[in-house]
Each structure stands twice: as C-alpha cells, then as structure tokens.
TrEMBL record:
Top-level taxon of origin: Bacteria
This protein's name: Glycosyltransferase 2-like domain-containing protein
Region (Disordered): 128-147
SUPFAM superfamilies: Nucleotide-diphospho-sugar transferases (SSF53448)
Domain Glycosyltransferase 2-like: 9-132, 344-475
Chaperone among keywords: no
Family that this chain belongs to: Belongs to the glycosyltransferase 2 family.
Organism for this UniProt entry: Isoptericola cucumis
Keywords linked to the UniProt accession: Glycosyltransferase, Transferase
Pfam families: Glycos_transf_2 (PF00535)
UniProt keyword annotation of Transmembrane present: no
C-alpha cells in the first residue's frame, strides 16, 4: 500500500498562543504530516502572524471575515484536497494539541483494519488527562459482531459520529460526499458532517491516538451557551430535516437524545430567558430556512472560496493544455471531459438590441457550433420592442437546444440581468454571449474542454466587424498565462463576450456587481485576486460587432464616473496600488473625454501596440 499524503488542517480564530502550541505539536509528530494548512478566520489578535512566521512554514489561508468553524473547516478541507492533493486530511481546532504519536497511531490502526476506513477519531483529553466530555465519539448502534471484531483487531471501536477535534478523513469520501455545511457557522457542523460521511462508511475511534483539547473549562455539550444556543437549535433542526446524514430511525434516536440534552441545558442555565429567546429563534429559522450553498456563504472571502468551488464542482488542477492557437487546442472526443460536463450559454438581450442581430447571434451559439450547448438561458432585461419579442417567441423553433427565457419586468442593467441568468443556468460551466456578436463554430469545442479540465475562466481573442461578418477587421488579442494577472492591474484582460467560466467561481468572487460598462472588469479582477485559474485563447473565436456608436459608448462623463468608481474599488481591495490607480485614472480620464474620432484612432493604435492586428 503506498504511503498516503496527510495534510493537517487547523482552523484558527483569536487564540494565537494555542495556535502556536498546536503547530509545535504537529511539527513534533513521530510520523510527520506532509503539509499543514492553517485557516485563519479573520483573527483580530496576532494569530495570523503566528501562523505565517511558524518554523514549520504552514500554508496559510487568511479569510476576509469570520466564517465560523463550519466555514473554516469547509475551506480547509477543500484546500487540502483540491489544492494540496491530500489523500487524508487531519482536522482540528487551534486549541487541539496532539501528542507526538497521535497521527502515527491513527495511521497504524488504519493499516491494521481489514477494510476501507472513511474517517477516524482520536481520544480527546483535557489538560488534566481526563476524557473530554465535549468530544466523545458516538458508538455505532447495532454494529455487527464482525464489525466489532475487525475494529478491535485494529485497536479501535466503530463509531457513528465524531468531532472536528482530531478527525482524520479520507479525501475520496470528501470528493464523493462534499464538504461540511458552511452555513452552520458554529456547532453541529462536525456532527452533521461525520454522520453524513459515516452513514455508509466506516468510522473508527482509536484510543491509542491522544490529543489534548485545551478548552478554558472542562464542560460538556450541555453547558449554558447563552445566545449561541440559537446555533445549537437551528443547526440540529437543519440536520434532522435538511440533511441526508441520518436514517429515519436515527432521527428518532438522536432527536430524543437532543431533547434530553436541551432540557439539561435549560435546567442548568443561569439566564433561561436568553436561552429561550435564542432557542425559539433557532427553531424558527431552522424550520423556515435552509442552509445556503457554500459558494454563497463564502462569497467575498477569496481566495479560499475558489478552492471550495473547485472541489464541489469536481475539478482538480488544470491539466497542461495548449491554448495559444485553435489548431493546438484539445478537440472534444466521445467520452471526453467535454462530453461529461454539460454547459449553458448565457445571453442577455434588451430593448436597444437589434432583432436580426439577436437571431444571428443565437444561431451562432446553437445551430452553428461543432460542440453544442446543453441549454441557452436568454435574459430579457426589461420590456422590448415587437421585433425582438417576435424573435424571442420563436427561439425554440430555431434549434433543438433547450431554451429558457428569464423575463425581467424592468430594465435592471447588465450586471443584475447576468446574475438572474446565472441563477437560472442548470450547469456549472457557462459560456457568455451577447445578442449582437457572432461565435465562430469552433468556439465551444475549444473553450469548454479547458474549463472542464480545471480552469475557472477562459476567454479568447475577438475580431471586430461593422456590418458584414464576412468582412472582418481588427483582432483584439488578450494576454495569456501569467500575463493575465499583470495586465489586469491596468485593463480588462478578457473580452467579455468571449468568456466561458465556472458559475461557482463567479459566485465565489462575489458575482457581477452593477457598474456601468465595467461590471465584467470588476468581476474578472476579483476572480484573479481570488486565485482563479485563468487563460485566454489567442485565436479569435468571437466576431465582435462595432457598428455605429461603439466608440461613442467608450467615452463620456458617465463612463468616466464608472471608471473612477472601479479604480477606487480595486484600490480599496488591494488589487491595484496607489500609483497604479493614479496612472489608470489619468490615462483613462483622457481617453474617455476626448472626441469620438480621436478616441477611435487612439484605441486602434493602442490595440495594435499591445498585440492586436489587422489581417491581410
């Protein structure tokens, strides 16, 4: 059996001294861990500094805000599996201090067990050496004599649940069954997750593996939690009603146990009024609400949210793929990843579009494609004229690709329209298209396999044309590879109508935000800042219509105001430096305010200078 790669994940929040002790203990393991990941939940003490300066050099994931233990462990597991290639992930809080042989004992029991093991738990003691009542694993009810014998032979006991205080999880189970529910924030996230993993998997409690849980007091799960009782009640209700972790009989069994523990908690409370209010609110929210998706909960904590998005999408690191030319790009084949991943096309339309252009653009992303989408989501951004309405009414007649129309009652702008469309898309991979542009037949065959292989966003060059698509003009060639992030500090590195991206990666970066004609640049900058795996294809896969008014729309005081707002936002988020912001404002202010004719000449000259060209 090959030696497994073990990544330890420590979730930290405002306990710098305890974090240092935990990292010291991990570094002293007789069976060394292969990597340590510290997830810092926006600590306000010096915990982040302790992690970054520790001699063991852990990989540090610094979250922008406190996501609770549930969010922290979701992020840590995703990072360990998706980013660091772990075979096994060892989970613990920052107040968990493993004894030197803790990991070795877990792996020894795993090797000795006759069968596959999904998760393992250590014996958890307090600082005085007594068993900690907060972290007692639940034995597996109805375990067969054979299961008991095999566990005993490995020096273990079969269990049905365990806590995140020293829990060793098989990465394959994480990929199959997902991550902890980030919306739990605190409490019961480990109960729900471990019971979900172990409903059909084997869980072992290994008393020979010992860790200290250095809580301030030796208390159990029924101690008085005060207002935090809200999370205990809400999350238990969610577990019993929204999760697949428990069978019907187990819901009754654990439900009865929970009610008895709540009764003890209330009886011992010194402030029953606070407890009652928190419990009632938790019961209500647990009943009428459901947990939000991890990408929604973790939106804005980038870059960690992208690791979660990749793992939940089943993506691994992107395979080496030539993307410089269409001829070199991978072509879809039967049984390939492109066939295995459905994808959507997202196409917004509004009253200012042309009906004939809409029909031509729609046909280019459906009938004409060598790799056809699995659906097209058309967002009607407010009322439209009779000509456009007539085209929308017969889109389903133009193709055998399923078409979904999202009609918005009023015009809300491109950003909000795209957000509505993304919500309606059924597939993880989404290709953008505009109503007046034309996608070349090979477009999706080139880009979709690259996204399916692990990239988060893939754009392409675009070729401008005015009225006749058979008379194309300048090609706008975007940056590629490492140049994308560098270019993004000064300009949009993607041609928006050409991109194909992961819907979860967009959500993880915060989604589209309304900003006139700048919503795409802001999104892509945030995705890059979050660590998105980005690429551009240098072959023009989209014909971009630059008819009357195209250059006029690139100027004016309104667009200048958007430009200034964009630069302030990118600077406040640390994406551009102060000098870069000043440079961008000076250059762009002049460009936006010069006459349209000058703007057109200057734009074409600059495009040629940075790699655009006019074909022979």
């Amino acid at each position: 059996m090959p030696t497994p790669s073990v990544v330890a994940v420590v979730v930290s929040y405002n306990r710098s001294a305890l974090l240092g002790a935990a990292l010291d203990a991990l570094a002293a393991q007789t069976r060394p861990v292969d990597r340590v990941v510290v997830v810092d939940n926006a600590s306000t003490d010096d915990a982040l500094t302790v992690a970054r300066e520790h001699p063991s050099a852990p990989a540090v994931v610094a979250l922008k805000r406190n996501t609770g233990g549930a969010g922290g462990f979701a992020v840590g597991l995703a990072a360990a599996v998706a980013d660091h290639g772990a075979d096994l992930v060892w989970l613990m809080d920052d107040d968990t201090v493993p004894t030197p042989t803790a990991l070795g004992a877990l792996l020894g029991a795993r090797d000795a067990y006759d069968g596959d093991v999904t998760a393992m738990a250590s014996r958890v003691v307090w600082t005085d050496g007594s068993d900690h009542p907060m972290n007692t694993p639940r034995s597996r009810p109805g375990a067969s004599p054979e299961a008991l014998r095999r566990a005993k032979a490995a020096g273990a006991m079969p269990v049905r649940s365990m806590s995140f205080v020293s829990m060793l999880v098989d990465a394959g189970a994480v990929r199959r069954l997902g991550l902890p529910v980030a919306d739990y924030f605190i409490w019961n996230d480990d109960f729900e997750y471990s019971t979900r993993l172990l409903r059909r998997g084997v869980g072992l409690y290994v008393p020979g593996s010992v860790v200290e849980h250095r809580t301030a007091r030796l208390v159990g799960t029924d101690h008085d939690p005060g207002p935090r009782f809200y999370y205990e009640v809400r999350n238990k209700v969610w577990t019993f009603t929204r999760s697949s972790a428990l069978s019907a009989s187990e819901r009754l069994l654990y439900g009865g146990s929970t009610l008895r523990r709540w009764a003890r908690t209330v009886a011992r409370s010194s402030d029953r009024g606070t407890l009652a209010k928190a419990g009632a609110r938790g019961l209500w929210h647990g009943t009428v609400r459901r947990p939000r998706a991890a990408t929604e909960v973790l939106s804005g904590v980038r870059p960690a949210a992208l690791s979660v998005a990749r793992l939940e999408a089943g993506a691994s690191a992107p395979a080496a793929a030539p993307v410089a030319r269409v001829a070199a790009a991978p072509a879809p084949a039967p049984g390939s990843v492109a066939d295995d991943h459905g994808f959507s096309v997202l196409l917004p339309v509004y009253a200012g579009d042309d009906a004939a252009h809409l029909e031509r653009g729609f046909l280019s992303v459906t009938r004409d494609q060598t790799l056809r989408p699995h659906e097209v989501v058309v967002v009607r951004d407010g009322p439209v004229g009779d000509d456009i309405a007539a085209v929308l009414a017969r889109l389903h007649e133009l193709t055998d690709v399923p078409v979904s129309l999202v009609p918005l009652e009023r015009n809300v702008g491109l950003a909000r329209a795209l957000e509505a469309g993304l919500e309606a898309c059924k597939h993880e991979i989404v290709a953008r298209a505009d109503a007046d542009d034309i996608s070349r037949p090979e477009r999706f065959a080139v880009q979709v396999p690259l996204v399916a292989a692990g990239h988060d966003v893939v754009g392409s060059a675009i070729q401008e044309f005015e009225d006749d698509e058979l008379d194309p003009g300048m090609v706008r060639v975007p940056p590629t590879g490492d140049e994308i992030a560098a270019a993004a500090r000064f300009r949009d590195p993607f041609n928006h109508p050409s991109v194909v991206y992961r819907r979860s990666a967009v959500a993880a970066a915060g989604g589209y935000e309304h900003l006139d004609l700048m919503e795409d640049y802001l999104l892509f900058a945030r995705m890059i800042a979050a660590g998105a795996r980005a690429e551009n294809v240098t072959e023009p896969l989209v014909l971009y219509r630059v008819g009357a008014g195209a250059y006029a729309r690139r100027g004016g005081r309104r667009l200048l105001a958007s430009e200034l707002a964009l630069q302030r936002t990118l600077h406040s988020e640390g994406f551009v430096t102060g000098p870069q912001m000043v440079r961008n404002v000076v250059v762009r202010a002049g460009y936006r305010l010069v006459p349209e004719g000058v703007r057109k000449v200057g734009y074409r000259a600059f495009t040629r200078l940075r790699g655009g060209y006019v074909p022979d």
